[in-house]
Each structure stands twice: as C-alpha cells, then as structure tokens.
Amino acid sequence: MIIVLLGPPGTGKGTQATAIKERYGIPHVSTGDILRANLAQGTPLGLEAKAYMEKGELVPDALILDLVADRLTLPDCQKGVLLDGFPRTLAQAEAFDRALVAQKKAIDHVLFLSVPEDALTRRLAGRRVCRGCAATYHVDFNPPPASLVCPGCQGEIYQRADDSQEAIRNRLKVYNDLTDPLIGYYREKAYLREVDGSESPARVAEAIARSLS
Ligand code: AP5
Ligand code: MG
Ligand code: ZN
C-alpha cells in the first residue's frame, strides 16, 4: 500500500498520519521529519538543508530524491509506505513515478487534505512539536503539558524555526507555486481523494477512513 499525503503546510498531514499508518501497518515517512532529524544530528544533509528550511524554501529536488530512495530501501517499507511531504514538486512526482514503474509498483491513493488559508496560518503559528518523536501539539487546540516534556518519549517540546510569521507566509506561497500543481497531476492519474481537513482532528480522521475504504 503506497499512500501519499498531500496538502499545504499546517493542513494536518503529520497529525493524521498516526491513525493511517496504524490502520495499514505501514511506516510514516515524512521528509520534513527526516530533514529535521538530520539537522539536529548535524549531518551534511542537515547542514545543507538548514538555510532552505528556516526560510520556508524547498530543499533541492536531487537531495530529496536521494533521501527518499534511501529510506524506501529499508525493510519496513516492503509492505508499503505513507509518504508525508513528498512529492512536493512536479519534478519529484515524475521521478517518483519513474522509480515506481521500474519496481513494478504504483501509488494506491493520494490523499489531499484541504483547509482554508487563514486557518492554516493559525494552526502553524500555535504549533508545538516534540524533538524526540515529532508528536504535534497546538497551544489552543491541543495544548502540550506545561512542563514541555513529551509524555510519549520525554523529549523536549519546542516551536519549529519555520513556524515564524515570515516563514509561514513564504511556505504558503511556495506551496501555491510549486506543490499545488500536483493536485492536477494526480487527479489526471485518478489517484486523488480530497478530504476536508478543516473539521476537528477526530472528524478528519473519520473522513479519511471513509475515503480510503
Ligand atoms: P514539512 O515538515 O513537510 O512541513 P509542511 O509541509 O510545511 O507541513 P507541516 O508539517 O508544517 O504541516 P502538517 O500538514 O504536517 O500539519 P500538522 O499535522 O503538524 O517540511 C518542512 C520543510 O522541509 C519544507 O519547508 C522544506 O524546506 C523541507 N522539505 C520537506 N519535504 C520536502 C520535499 N519533498 N521537497 C523539498 N523540500 C522539502 O498540524 C499543524 C498544526 O495544526 C498542529 O499544531 C496541529 O496540532 C494542528 N492541527 C492539526 N489538525 C488540526 C485540526 N483538524 N484542527 C485544529 N488543529 C489541527
Ligand atoms: Mg508535518
Ligand atoms: Zn515525543
């Protein structure tokens, strides 16, 4: 089972991924989480990606394609994968399609989560994330513990550098320019399923389950 989660920054891709990956028994592969882990460890990839990510620009396609190709060769991806934040440009989508054809595989579903832009800004500005396990909180909608220690993994709960007002504005623009065209690309291939992501997390999860069954 290969599922692609598509949608603007803050639409709830990371939030909804947990239920989907458990339902299908497939790993959740978020290119953003992998890049942030590399950044925290100071790897060459992390150092190269840092400046792009902080400004809300996309990391160059070639780096991302290598990262995803490496991740998908690990044994846990044999049953499939839930991709979050990849592909994000037409070039990435086309390269991914070519790689799948070569392996006689295909995408099963592309799930597009739609949320109005003003709600996205509010979600991103109030988001808090665990450094250890990437669990996501929101100061108003799902407040983290006052200690800012993650109940799941004891990791530190922090605010992402790209959740500043300026980076949020740029990320939404970059999404509209470079990632939004993927909706038409996948609609043409008949993979696309659109889900309204503006309801509560539980309602959105129900809508996703209906849409995938
Ligand atoms: P990435 O980490 O993928 O960030 P993003 O796409 O901007 O998406 P987000 O993680 O911000 O949003 P989300 O949809 O996961 O929302 P969440 O569930 O957290 O990428 C970061 C950077 O890495 C990029 O800018 C780029 O530089 C680089 N990068 C990554 N992949 C790349 C690629 N393929 N190519 C090139 N560069 C790449 O929810 C957000 C908030 O809302 C949370 O606080 C949450 O609690 C809250 N929330 C969620 N659902 C609801 C709801 N239903 N109601 C109320 N609040 C909700
Ligand atoms: Mg995310
Ligand atoms: Zn944690």
How would you describe what is shown here?
By secondary structure, the protein is α/β, with parallel strands linked by helices. It has one domain (2-26, 79-212): 3-Layer(aba) Sandwich (Rossmann fold). Helix content is 49%, strand content 15%. Strands 2-3-1-4-8 form a five-stranded parallel β-sheet. A three-stranded antiparallel β-sheet has the order 6-5-7. Strand 5 (127-130) and strand 6 (136-138) form a beta hairpin. The longest helix has 15 residues, at 165-179. The mean pLDDT is 96. The structure holds BIS(adenosine)-5'-pentaphosphate (AP5), magnesium ion and zinc ion. Residues 7, 9-15, 30-32, 35, 52-53, 56-59, 64, 85-86, 88, 92, 123-124, 127, 136-138, 141-142, 162, 171, 200-201, 204 line the site of BIS(adenosine)-5'-pentaphosphate (AP5).
Topology overview:
Elements: E1 2-6, H1 13-24, E2 28-30, H2 31-41, H3 44-55, H4 61-72, E3 81-84, H5 90-102, E4 109-114, H6 117-125, E5 127-130, E6 136-138, E7 157-158, H7 165-179, H8 181-188, E8 192-196, H9 201-212
Parallel strand pairs: 1-3, 1-4, 2-3, 4-8
Antiparallel strand pairs: 5-6, 5-7
Helix pairs in contact: 1-9, 2-3, 6-7
Bound molecules: BIS(adenosine)-5'-pentaphosphate, magnesium ion (MG) and zinc ion (ZN).
Question: What attributes characterize this protein structure?
Answer:
three-stranded antiparallel sheet; five-stranded parallel sheet; 213 residues; Rossmann fold; alpha/beta; binds zinc ion
